[in-house]
Amino acid sequence: MARTRAVDFEEKQRGILASAAAVFAEVGMEKASMSMIASHSNVSKALLYHYYPGKDALIFDIVQTHLTELEDAIEAADRTDITPQERLRLLVKAVLKNYEGADNEHQVQLNGTHALSPEQLSEIRTIERRIVKRFSSVIQDLNPDLNKNKPLLMPVTMSLFGMMNWVYMWFRPNGPISRDEYADIATTLILEGVKAVR
């Protein structure tokens, strides 16, 4: 007879993922051990292994969950009935709002994918490509000539992701600007700069 899941299975799983992300962010993927993660999660090592067979499975689940939630937030914020300028502003705000409180998970996404199998990496890259494509299509609408003489759409799109992805390195909640204000700054830099890119 198959073993049934505990009522709080998903809640415990989320707690383990949050704890594992914190450990990975603090000590790095290589130095982190399953014992450290179990201790930080306040679960036994045996229970941790019941949920995850190893660090690679944890890393994959952290990154996949983080990116899926990000993609869902972007999709919910996206509107095709407004100007590309307004649309881009909403998308940038959705990303930065989703990153709030997820610095550890974001660091695992940026630094931990080398530990994944080719199949896991392919799944992660598929989600990332869908997210990037949504942004690049809006940027293409802002400047249809971006790829006219040189393939410049992707460099411009990834420049925006560079601004968004490294916010966790310097942003402070009690600092001089809010996340929304920085979202406006990043969007304005792209909106104004993309006009001049040839």
> Helical region count?
10
How many domains, in number, for the residues?
Answer: 1
Share of residues in strands: under 5%
Oligomer: single chain
CATH fold annotation: Tetracycline Repressor, domain 2
- What is the molecular shape? elongated
Helix content: over 70%
Structural classification: mainly alpha
The radius of gyration over CA amounts to: 19 Å
CATH homology superfamily: Tetracycline Repressor, domain 2
How many distinct beta strands?
0
Beginning-to-end CA distance, first to last residue: 65 Å
The secondary-structure element order is HHHHHHHHHH
Mean pLDDT: 92
Main beta sheet strand tally, sense and closure: none
Q: Architecture, according to CATH?
A: Orthogonal Bundle
- Identify the CATH class: Mainly Alpha
Low-confidence stretches: none
What does this structure look like?
There is one protein chain. The model has no long low-confidence stretch (mean pLDDT 92). The chain has ten helices and no strands. It has helices spanning 9-27, 34-41, 45-51, 55-77, 84-99, 103-111, 118-142, 153-165, 167-170, 179-194. α7 (118-142) packs across α8 (153-165). The radius of gyration is 19 Å and the shape is elongated. The longest helix has 25 residues, at 118-142. The N and C termini lie far apart (65 Å).
Q: What is the secondary structure topology, with strand pairs?
A:
Layout: H1 9-27, H2 34-41, H3 45-51, H4 55-77, H5 84-99, H6 103-111, H7 118-142, H8 153-165, H9 167-170, H10 179-194
Helix pairs in contact: 1-2, 1-4, 1-6, 2-3, 4-5, 4-6, 4-7, 5-7, 5-10, 7-8, 8-10
